[in-house]
C-alpha cells in the first residue's frame, strides 16, 4: 500500500511540481477542521518548506500528508466550543519542531500509558453538559427540607409567627416547632383537636377568629403552658373548653355559647386573666368565680336576666373593693341594672347598660 502511494506521489511531483503541491496544501486550510487536524497540516507544510532542498525527504513527508488527507474526512471534527488547552502553536519561533515533537510524545504518552487520567478529564465534561441540558429543559422542583414546608408555602412563616389568614383551610396545619404565634383567621376550620398543638409547646397566641369551629376536644390547650392570648371569636361554639392557666386574654364573642356551656370554675384559676370577651352569645347569667385580675369584661348582647350581690362583689364583705376592673359592659341584655344596686357597690365604675 505504501509503495503504491509513494509511486503515485513521485508521478505527481514529476507532472505538477512542488509549487502546485504546496498550493494544494494551502487550499486544505479553507476546510473546517478541528485544531488538532490543522496543527498536523501546519506541521507537515512547515517541514516540507524547510526540507525542499532534500527532495527525497519532501516526498516522504508528502506521503504522510496524503495519508492524513485520506483519513481526515473519516474523522469527526471536534466541537468548536472545546479546545485542547495542551496544544499551543507558535509559528513564529525557531523551536516549532521541538514543540511538535514534545506534543507527539505527550499525546502518545497520554494515549498509551495514562489512559485513565485522560478519561477522568473527559467524562465529567460530558456529565456537566448533560446536567446543563437537563436543567435547561426541566426545572428542578423545590426540595422539601422537612415536613413543615407545606405550611410555610401555603401560609406565611416569619420569625416564630405563622399567618394562615383567608386560605380556606379546614383544619389546623402542621406548625413549625418554634412557632409562638398562629393567626388562622377567616378560614373553614370546624374542629380543634388535642393533636393540633401537641408538639408546639411555645405557643403564646392563637387566633381562630371567623372560622366554623363547633367542637374543641378536651385537652386541646392543656399542654400550652405559655399560651397568653386565645381568640375563638365569630365561630359556632356552644360551650367553652378547658382553658390554659396563664391566659391574659380570652375572646369568644359572637358564638352560640349558653350558660350551661361554661363550667362553674372555668375562670377561677386563671389568675392572670385581664380581658374577657363573651359578648354576642346566648348567656342567661354572668359566669361565676371571675378572677380578681380582670380589668375588662364584655357581656353585652346576651340573654342575661339576673345579677346577684356576689356576681362582681362579696355580699358578706362590705369593705371589699374590686379596684382592677375598668370596664363592664352589659347593654343589650334583658335586665334593669338599677334594680340591683348592691351588685356594683365594690366597683369604682358602674357597668354600662340600662338602669331604668
TrEMBL record:
<comment type="function">
    <text>Induces bone formation in conjunction with TGF-beta-1 or TGF-beta-2.</text>
</comment>
<dbReference type="Pfam" id="PF13855">
    <property type="entry name" value="LRR_8"/>
</dbReference>
<dbReference type="GO" id="GO:0031012">
    <property type="term" value="C:extracellular matrix"/>
</dbReference>
<dbReference type="InterPro" id="IPR032675">
    <property type="entry name" value="LRR_dom_sf"/>
</dbReference>
<keyword id="KW-0339">Growth factor</keyword>
<keyword id="KW-0325">Glycoprotein</keyword>
<keyword id="KW-0433">Leucine-rich repeat</keyword>
<dbReference type="InterPro" id="IPR043547">
    <property type="entry name" value="Mimecan/Epiphycan/Opticin"/>
</dbReference>
<keyword id="KW-0654">Proteoglycan</keyword>
<dbReference type="InterPro" id="IPR003591">
    <property type="entry name" value="Leu-rich_rpt_typical-subtyp"/>
</dbReference>
<protein>
    <recommendedName>
        <fullName>Mimecan</fullName>
    </recommendedName>
</protein>
<dbReference type="InterPro" id="IPR001611">
    <property type="entry name" value="Leu-rich_rpt"/>
</dbReference>
<keyword id="KW-1015">Disulfide bond</keyword>
<keyword id="KW-0272">Extracellular matrix</keyword>
<dbReference type="GO" id="GO:0061975">
    <property type="term" value="P:articular cartilage development"/>
</dbReference>
<keyword id="KW-0677">Repeat</keyword>
<dbReference type="GO" id="GO:0005615">
    <property type="term" value="C:extracellular space"/>
</dbReference>
<comment type="similarity">
    <text>Belongs to the small leucine-rich proteoglycan (SLRP) family. SLRP class III subfamily.</text>
</comment>
<keyword id="KW-0964">Secreted</keyword>
<keyword id="KW-0732">Signal</keyword>
<dbReference type="GO" id="GO:0060348">
    <property type="term" value="P:bone development"/>
</dbReference>
<dbReference type="GO" id="GO:0008083">
    <property type="term" value="F:growth factor activity"/>
</dbReference>
Amino acid at each position: 500500500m505504501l509503495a503504491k502511494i509513494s509511486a503515485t506521489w513521485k508521478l505527481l511531483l514529476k507532472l505538477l511540481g512542488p509549487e502546485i503541491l504546496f498550493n494544494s496544501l494551502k487550499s486544505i486550510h479553507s476546510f473546517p477542521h478541528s485544531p488538532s487536524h490543522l496543527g498536523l497540516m501546519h506541521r507537515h507544510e512547515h517541514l516540507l518548506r524547510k526540507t525542499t532542498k532534500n527532495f527525497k525527504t519532501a516526498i516522504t513527508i508528502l506521503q504522510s500528508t496524503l495519508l492524513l488527507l485520506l483519513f481526515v474526512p473519516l474523522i469527526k471534527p471536534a466541537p468548536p466550543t472545546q479546545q485542547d488547552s495542551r496544544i499551543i502553536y507558535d509559528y513564529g519561533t525557531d523551536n516549532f519542531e521541538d514543540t511538535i515533537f514534545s506534543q507527539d510524545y505527550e499525546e502518545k504518552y497520554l494515549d498509551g500509558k495514562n489512559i485513565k487520567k485522560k478519561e477522568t478529564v473527559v467524562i465529567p465534561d460530558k456529565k456537566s453538559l448533560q446536567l446543563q441540558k437537563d436543567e435547561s429543559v426541566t426545572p428542578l422542583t423545590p426540595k422539601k427540607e422537612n415536613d413543615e414546608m407545606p405550611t410555610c408555602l401555603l401560609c406565611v412563616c416569619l420569625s416564630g409567627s405563622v399567618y394562615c389568614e383567608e386560605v380556606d383551610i379546614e383544619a389546623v396545619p402542621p406548625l413549625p416547632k418554634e412557632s409562638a404565634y398562629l393567626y388562622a383567621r377567616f378560614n373553614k376550620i370546624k374542629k380543634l383537636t388535642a393533636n393540633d398543638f401537641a408538639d408546639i409547646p411555645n405557643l403564646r397566641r392563637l387566633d381562630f377568629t371567623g372560622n366554623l369551629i363547633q367542637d374543641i376536644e378536651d385537652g386541646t390547650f392543656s399542654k400550652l403552658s405559655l399560651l397568653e392570648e386565645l381568640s375563638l371569636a365569630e365561630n359556632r361554639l356552644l360551650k367553652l373548653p378547658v382553658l390554659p392557666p396563664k391566659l391574659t386574654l380570652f375572646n369568644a364573642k359572637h358564638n352560640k355559647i349558653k350558660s350551661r356551656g361554661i363550667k362553674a370554675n372555668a375562670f377561677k384559676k386563671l389568675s392572670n386573666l385581664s380581658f374577657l370577651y363573651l359578648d354576642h352569645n346566648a348567656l342567661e347569667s354572668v359566669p361565676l368565680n371571675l378572677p380578681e385580675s380582670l380589668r375588662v369584661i364584655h357581656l353585652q348582647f346576651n340573654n342575661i336576666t339576673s345579677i346577684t350581690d356576689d356576681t362582681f362583689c362579696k355580699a358578706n364583705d362590705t369593705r371589699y373593693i374590686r379596684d382592677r376592673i375598668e370596664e363592664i359592659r352589659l347593654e343589650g341584655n334583658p335586665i334593669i341594672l338599677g334594680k340591683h344596686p348592691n351588685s356594683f357597690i365594690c366597683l369604682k365604675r358602674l357597668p354600662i347598660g340600662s338602669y331604668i
